[in-house]
Design goal:
Layout: H1 3-14, E1 18-20, E2 26-27, E3 33-34, E4 36-38, H2 47-64, E5 70-74, H3 77-89, E6 93-96, E7 109-110, E8 118-126, H4 130-141, E9 145-154, H5 158-166, E10 171-176, H6 177-186, H7 194-203
Parallel strand pairs: 5-6, 5-8, 8-9, 9-10
Antiparallel strand pairs: 1-4, 2-3, 6-7
Helix pairs in contact: 1-2, 1-6, 2-3, 6-7
């Protein structure tokens, strides 16, 4: 893990934006039992963590996507992060709605976007990748050149990785499931022996054998 991955992992764990509970799993809407809870919106109410996140997002955009002309946030979780990061980088910013408005100009893309502009999508969390790929497709249909995605956290699940590859879109996350699991063990949030169980969940969320491990 690099310094940024570890810093953001520690930040997210500290404010419980991401935390593990392998002994008392959460239940997702799909019914899958999960040892992890994620709510990166909590970064917005923690000024120090928020600063770490937005500075890291800005540095990632500069390093990985130096040609970026516009940042576009996902609705709704990516909007604030896109706005703050755009302010740091002095770039235009907008966001993509989950669907077109049914009134006014019926926009789905909010903010000025010109055909051919080079765009980076800002997302807070990537699991299976479905919602962020929808945003990428909307931007592409509008004529934008989507350079890629920056996100705060990714599970690194195979389904998400495969979907991103199929959509031919790059994602760079500030930290990931494996790093956070390792840091959680280092910092005493979980037992060291739980890390292998957590990785088994990540590798196949529908297989609940990790619970009994």
């Amino acid at each position: 893990m690099n310094a940024t991955e570890k810093l953001i992992a520690k930040d997210l764990l500290e404010i419980k934006a991401v935390f593990f509970r392998p002994e008392e799993p959460f239940t997702w809407a799909s019914g899958i039992k999960s040892p992890i809870y994620c709510d990166n919106r909590l970064t917005l109410t923690a000024p120090k963590v928020r600063l770490d996140v937005e500075n890291a997002l800005a540095e990632t955009v500069k390093a990985v996507y130096p040609e970026c002309e516009v940042l576009m946030g996902t609705s709704t979780a990516g909007i604030a992060h896109a706005a703050i990061t755009a302010h740091i980088l002095d770039l235009p910013m907008g966001y993509v709605r989950s669907g077109a408005k049914d009134h006014g100009r019926q926009n789905q893309i909010e903010g000025k976007l010109l055909p051919g502009q080079k765009v980076v999508v800002v997302e807070d969390l990537i699991s299976t990748g479905g919602s962020v790929i929808e945003v990428v497709n909307v931007l592409r249909e509008a004529g934008a050149e989507v350079l890629g995605i920056v996100s705060i956290f990714t599970y690194g699940m195979k389904k998400g990785l495969d979907r991103l590859a199929e959509a031919n879109v790059k994602n760079v996350s500030l930290t990931n499931f494996d790093v956070i699991a390792e840091v959680a063990a280092e910092c005493g949030y979980v037992k060291p022996e739980d890390v292998a169980r957590l990785i088994r969940f990540r590798n196949n969320p529908s297989d609940e054998s990790w619970i009994k491990a």
